[in-house]
Amino acid sequence: MSLRFGYGLNGFTDHRIEDALAVLADLGYDGVALTLDHMHLDPFAPDLAARTARVAALLQRHDLGVVVETGARYVLDPRRKHEPTLVSDSGRERRIDLLERAIRIAAEVGSPAVSFWSGIAPAGVPIAERWSRVEDGVTTLLPLAEALGIDLALEPEPGMFVERIEDVRELRRRLGDPVRLRLTIDVGHLRCTEDADPAACVVGAGDLVANVQIDDMRRGVHEHLPFGDGEVDFPPVLAALADVGFDGLVAVELPRHTHAAPALAATSLDFLRDAERRAQERNHSRRPQEVGR
């Protein structure tokens, strides 16, 4: 078992991107989760192609993998956090435009997937209309994703319309199980909202998992915490990711801790490597018993 660990650049917003990548490469990270926003790669500023090429070159220079994230808070509306979304009453076409840009950027920088979420449904919108809006949005995105070979990794987000893994499965069923529509797992969210424990959720999702964010969290409280501050048992989760054959980045997701980014990135990687080692030890200790059965 050997997982690839990354760090979310939404937790390095006080750093220039060239500095953030240098720090993370020096620490030994395998890659980064790149949130498209004004501080590192603004998807709406002029000269997008040139700036994307520069980021791709920086990633290559530091031998870092990348996955593209689209959860910027105010990239579309300076007054309303995360708006508009795929389920908003108006402006959904602007979210589609952002996601199409993200797919093209992913192809340029070498990201195998674009991570996204549904958004919070407005009050009073019937459930059928909520599904219809998400279906329409994803259906619009799929042809471009298929043409460029990019997975659309839908993240169940606490409080949003698509909130649980089963909601992603339901959307896939409604759309005929498109190959390019897959799943982003945030390990903390699994503890926060799912009924099963996080490791069981990973095993149950299997090869549907296209992207992994990792952080600690407590049951019922949507707060991304440094490792050890929440309730997640990490070695079984890492073992489960290895068991299902996940080969993408497992990226630390601590967007509200940017003030301590370098130190927290260092301690987070140490924690994950230790948790992976403990997961391997558990697997080895079980193996003789399993053989004897």
List the helices and strands and how they pair.
Layout: E1 4-8, H1 17-27, E2 31-35, H2 48-61, E3 65-69, H3 92-109, E4 113-116, H4 127-148, E5 151-154, H5 165-174, E6 181-186, H6 187-193, H7 198-205, E7 209-214, E8 216-218, E9 221-225, H8 234-243, E10 249-252, H9 261-292
Parallel strand pairs: 1-2, 1-10, 2-3, 3-4, 4-5, 5-6, 6-7, 7-10
Antiparallel strand pairs: 8-9
Helix pairs in contact: 1-9, 3-4, 7-8, 8-9
Protein described:
45% of the residues lie in helices and 16% in strands. Helix 3 packs parallel to helix 4. The chain has one domain: Divalent-metal-dependent TIM barrel enzymes (TIM Barrel, Alpha-Beta Barrel). With 293 residues, the chain is α/β, with parallel strands linked by helices. The radius of gyration is 19 Å and the shape is globular. It contains 9 helices and 10 strands. An 8-stranded parallel barrel has the order 1-2-3-4-5-6-7-10, surrounded by 6 helices. Helix 4 links the parallel strand 4 and strand 5.
